[in-house]
Amino acid sequence: MAEFSKILRKIDTKKRLSVPIRFLSSLPPFKLGSHTVTFEATDEKGEAWTFQCYIRKRGHPKPALTRGWVAFVKSKNLQVGDKVRFTKHMNRATGTISYKVRAEKAIKIFGATFGYARI
């Protein structure tokens, strides 16, 4: 099982979510010559979300989730300081791969974050 989590910054809530390079190998393969790959992730409520991961054409790939990401942020009412977690699961019996996405709201008291609650 591969996974990554990230505490959201302003750009993550407004435009795109940067993805760690190490997670790229967990995504479906990019077609030859393509700089995007689309995949589906299911949230805690079982709702499917379609995301597109983009990489640069030259130099450092700097992967980011673009298409579908802002709609997810708005739906979950995510803000700077909240957390998101992506996991890849492989069903060994069937050989199928699935992705999960989990949003977590920051628990703040007097402006300090004390943890995260699943939403």
**Structural class given helices, strands, pairing?**
mainly beta
Stretches where pLDDT falls below 50 for ≥5 residues? none
Averaged pLDDT: 91
Number of strands: 8
Number of domains: 1
Pfam families: B3 (PF02362)
GO molecular function: DNA binding
Organism: Populus tomentosa (Chinese white poplar)
Protein name: TF-B3 domain-containing protein
Description of the molecule:
With 119 residues, this protein is mostly beta strands. The protein has a single domain (2-118), classed as Beta Barrel (At1g16640 B3 domain). The chain has 3 helices and 8 strands. Strands 1, 2, 3, 4, 5, 6, 7 and 8 form an 8-stranded mixed beta sheet that branches. Strand 6 (83-91) and strand 7 form a beta hairpin. The longest helix is centred in the middle third of the chain and has 8 residues, at 69-76. The radius of gyration is 15 Å and the shape is globular. InterPro entries: B3_DNA-bd.
